[in-house]
Amino acid sequence: MQEFIQDIARELALVPPGWGGNLLRGLLTTLQIAFGAYALALVIGIGGMLGKVYGGPVTRLVLEVYTTAIRAVPELIVLLLLYYAGTDFLNFILAKFGHDPVDINALLAGILVIGIVQGAFCTEVFRGAIRSIPVGQVEAAQSFGMPFWQRFRRIILPIMTPRALPGLSNLWLITTKDTALLAVIGFSELALTTKQAAGATKSYFLFYMVAAVLYLCVTLISNVVLKRIERHYRRGQKQLA
Amino acid sequence: MDWSWIPQYAPKLLEGLWLTLQLTFLSIFFGMMLAIPIGLVQVTGPKWAARLALAFCTLIRGTPLLIQLWLLYFGLGSLFPSIPVIRETWLWPILREAFPFALLAFTISVAGYSGEVMRGAFQNVSKGELEAAQSFGMRPIKVLSRIWVPRAIQSVLPTLVGEFIMTLKATPLAATITVFEVYGVSNSIRQNTFLVYEPLLLVAGIYLVLVLILVAVFRYIENKMPQRALH
Amino acid sequence: MKIRNIIKTVAVAGGLLAATQAVAEVRWGVASEPYPPFASKGADGEWIGWEIEIGNALCAAMNEECSWVEVSWDGIIPALQSKKFDAIVASMSITEDRMKVISFSNKYYQTPAVVVAPKSSDIKASPEGVAGKVVGVQISTTHASYADKHFSGSVDSIKPYQSADERNQDLVSGRIDAMIGDSLAISKFLAGESGQCCEIKGEVTDLAVYGPGIGVGLRKEDTELRDKINTAIEKIRADGTYEAISENYFDFDIFGE
Questions:
Q1: Is C177:C135 a contact under the CB 8 Å cutoff?
Q2: Residues C92, C76 share a domain
Q3: Chain A nearest-CA residue for C23
Q4: Least CB-CB distance to A186: which of C22, C43, C75?
Q5: Residue A133 falls within a domain, yes or no?
Q6: pTM for the full predicted model
Q7: Nearest residue to A40 via CA among A113, A102, A105, A126
Q8: Facing residue for C41 by CB, picked from A80, A108, A196
Q9: What φ, ψ does residue C236 adopt, rounded to 5°?
């Protein structure tokens, strides 16, 4: 038993030859990709929502195709398509301008692909939230002569946010877990790092358990933070049962 | 675009598609069988069971499905050599295959996510209906099977359908543990033909069609149900 | 408002600039799945192995700066074509099928393919010898093609794994009855602790499937780079660098004839 624990401690050590340091580096990459992708998704989500609600027929069609395709096709396949198509597209454009191909660093590529995928879900969350805003408030703002962006900033966004929060919290948790799919493409985040560590040490069970625990920690901490944020935005409103 | 490879690989694709459907529907079936008690016990109690169910749901929803798959297949698999006697048992033919592990992982996933949905659903069924049933003299089991469960499922059908579609979309991950479903087949097509986009686009199209069919079927079922409000 | 716009534009431009780098050096592509002793990730996050050292040596011989890019093995050729890196240095066999889409340098090592099974089993390296058994291979490899071509008629099933070590692990666990792979990498596995269960049952050859050896994969249009690499390979063979590196890993010359 003593030796068993010593073996585990040795394999998980933070400095080589222990793999603990590597795993934590993978976790850091995961978090970086998750934050970046989530921020991108929020931007795409708001833009997509505005396009779907206020845009013309062409905008709405394009956005409809975007959200339906991404919500109907498995994320892994979308990630692969975006990864290859995105690179080819970028190189194509650059070649047209006579530039040499540039290499998008892996972190940014991961952020882009996951952000684009989550952006579709985010659009739907915001769209659902905006429809629940009492029309009277918007009309009142209009009758005051507020221009669109002022209306958006002062009335729509503050009312919409608490209603969108449950969906947005869910989306954050999904984003952090989706980063694991990047392992199949070969990005060095936590899942791939765990795979490499497990393969090198043959302690598959140990490392996958550790990875699960690390992801769980991220989820639990996120839950606490998200609850705080939700409470802040719901202050003054009637408490749900 | 080069689609000339389709006739040659069509039989393999159909086999893979069948595996995808099996994995999806079996895991939804078994997962829901687990989800209903998991959701119910959190509303009725006893306290220890409710806490256990909550821990289960938190665990499953807090870790990526890919890690769960790898943990079950490779993690448990790496423990086999230390238990040599396992090869003699009746379990061995099941443990050798990858499909049971994929099915287990997906079933647990459905149970975890749907269990949480069912908890909310059971809580939201109007107390009035349950009390009315009790005052008719119905035993608790009858109340459960005639009123509580059906009303709960009815109220969250759209959310459950969403979860089922997520399960269908998660099946490609099984290819990483050697289950040769339709995405796995497309991978072997990519490796043999060196085409990058066409196989992926075909599989994306197949999933698109499957999801649209699933949504249409569930919409039909929803329309068949009585529409009276819960409260 | 105007100042904000300026700041935003500068931030975006700066971000893009920081994120992309114009390509000035040669980038080697390696598979992210570990493949000891040729290429695997050490606990400190750096890539180590015979192939890594050879790749660095080739760079030195070409007087170029090199960096390593890791991609998943089954997407490594598309990644090369998308210009994510310039050459594949990942133990890739030179085969006619692959030569339809990419070109190769001259070979830099050769490795026969072997069938491996538990010591107690009576499997042989032939279609009859594996009849009714479950055979494991790594996806997108020449071994997978060989199994498809020669064994698919007689075996119970062929199981495709994402990485070689997962395939090895399942052989040890008993989920597969046999596996096909590179004899060099497999010898290291058999010499290790977990490989004690099993042994090499025999060699398999098929020139059409396996080709003349392992080469550096390149885009078809990069003929200049290919010539440079070929010269570099000859150079490190001639001046003893190849031998010096190989000594640490293998006790015979893996170049082949």
A1: yes
A2: yes
A3: A102
A4: C75
A5: yes
A6: 0.85
A7: A113
A8: A196
A9: -75, -20
